Amino acid sequence: MTAVAVVGAGISGLVAALRLVEAGCRVTVFESGTRVGGKLRSETIGGVRLDVGAEAFLRRRPEVVDLATELGLADQLVEPVGRRPAVFADGAVRGHLGRTLMGIPADADEVRIPLRWNAGADTSLGALVRSRLGDEVVERSVDPMVSGVFAAHADDVSVRAALPALAARLDEGAPSLGTAVTDVLGEPSDEPVFGAFRGGYQQLLDALTEKLGDRIVLGAPVPEVRPKWSLRGSMFDAVVLAVPAPQVARLVGLNLPELGDAVSRIPAASSALVTMRLPETTPLPDLSGVLVATREQVSAKAFTLSGRKWAHLPGGAVRLSFGRLGVSRIVDDLDAGLIGAAREDLANVFGITDEPEAVHVQRWYEGIPVYLPGHRDTLTAIDEATPAGMALAGAYFDGVGVPACIARAESAVQKVLADLS
Ligand SMILES: Cc1cc2nc3c(=O)[nH]c(=O)nc-3n(C[C@H](O)[C@H](O)[C@H](O)COP(=O)(O)OP(=O)(O)OC[C@H]3O[C@@H](n4cnc5c(N)ncnc54)[C@H](O)[C@@H]3O)c2cc1C
After folding, report:
1. How far away, in angstroms, is 192 Cα from ligand 1 center?
2. CA distance 141 to 137
């Protein structure tokens, strides 16, 4: 029987392991931590299970819904109630974002000079939008969205990697940014954009863990991967590395230096989440959350009013996220400092000073990969440097969200199976 090692038991590693087992392989999943899930983590806060890493998934992609259905969890999927987020700009909560693509409006006034874009080119989202729609759109609309998803400023994030459909439309010769955005957005739809698990991501983790059983070894950090293929003193026919890019660089740096170099070109941003349960009587606004514009006097980059966004959560559940690429000092602050900053922000943005009933602080060091301009070239270099019998999976490839991680894990498994055959 073919023996395959999977390093990392986040969603990427768990899905890769599941597919390898289904393909008839003998699988061992090595996880350095004492629990599975990586950035999928649910905690009980004030008696309620809340996610303190990822909390939702893009429903318009099929992967999470398909996996949940396969695992018998389809009836545990929930949708948001339909409230929308607003933006905090110039010291006040402003109106909702209109229909946008990652904060790029389709109908903003655009410079009249023709759009110049070389097919195959790349630049930052900030530079593209600034040149067509001006600084204000970047600071009040694109930056708040990009910071929420990629934990980086729009000026640090690649158009081609973050919004491949937009880049493709520009390659085809879209006459303006607005036309390209409109084309990518397509017809307005009433379908919910996001979904979540009623009992948090823990439900998905429990179902995957049950399928994989004692193939998962917890508390088993892999310090080094040696071709072909030695890990923690055992030999394997193939290996799937399902750990974030900085860890891949550390794992392979000595033995596969070209791969290590390519992977270490991808930076990762650290962030912290303060999740609170406020009293049910707290007068939270009728919004799903608030995104913060650039240069505001607010420490958080986003507020999710989870209890307003989801019907299954108690009304007072809120979470504030802190930290972007290059702005990580606050992430290192003591818990008391982060909680203090969160409470100050709640007071300044919503006028809320209620004492929380329960608080949880979670830090995610190097938690979100940043797709710098040129990211696709880095991925090509990674592919070229990845030897037969090894495959890589994770959020640094084709999207940071959980659906994209599942898709990448499945394609990583296809690669090792093809190599083995
Ligand atoms: C704060 C935050 C909020 C997010 N919100 C959302 C959201 O709402 N929706 C969404 O779709 N996505 C969201 N994401 C993104 C998404 O959660 C992640 O991209 C995804 O979970 C990454 O999964 P992964 O398995 O690739 O990596 P990870 O979850 O990082 O898992 C990697 C695992 O490998 C282990 N590991 C690392 N090194 C080693 C080693 N040497 N040996 C053994 N084990 C090792 C780690 O302990 C970890 O368990 C969010 C991310 C963050 C940080």
Report:
1. 24
2. 5
Let me know the angle formed at the C-alpha of 361 by 360 and 365, rounded to the nearest 5 degrees.
Answer: 150
Asked, as a colleague might, if the bond just before 310 is cis with ω within 30 of 0, I would say: no
Spatial neighbors of 281 by CB under 8 A, at least 6 apart, are: 354
Q: Which two tokens stand for residue 186?
A: 């397509």
Question: What is the per-residue pLDDT across 331-364, written as a single tens digit (0 to 9) for each?
Answer: 888 999 999 999 999 999 999 999 999 999 999 9
- Alpha-carbon dihedral sign for residues 199, 202, 205, 206: negative
Q: Is the peptide bond before 228 cis (omega within 30 degrees of 0)?
A: yes
Pocket test for ligand 1, best of 402, 406, 410, 411 (most atoms within 8 A of CB): 402
Residue of 243, 252, 291 to test ligand 1 pocket, by largest number of atoms within 8 Å of CB: 243
Q: What is the distance in A from the centroid of ligand 1 to the CA of 356?
A: 28
Residue 21, Cβ neighbours under 10 Å: how many?
Answer: 16
Distance from C-alpha of 367 to C-alpha of 395, rounded to nearest angstrom: 10
Per-residue pLDDT of 260-270, as tens digits, reads: 999 999 999 99
In 3-state terms, what secondary structure has residue 310?
strand
The rounded distance, in Å, linking the Cα atoms of 53 and 177 is 33
Beta-bridge mates of residue 80: 310
Q: Which residues pair with 358 in a beta bridge?
A: 277
| Residue pair 147/361 in contact by the 8 Å Cβ criterion | no
Q: Is the pTM of this model over 0.70?
A: yes
Distance 368 CA to ligand 1 centre (A): 8
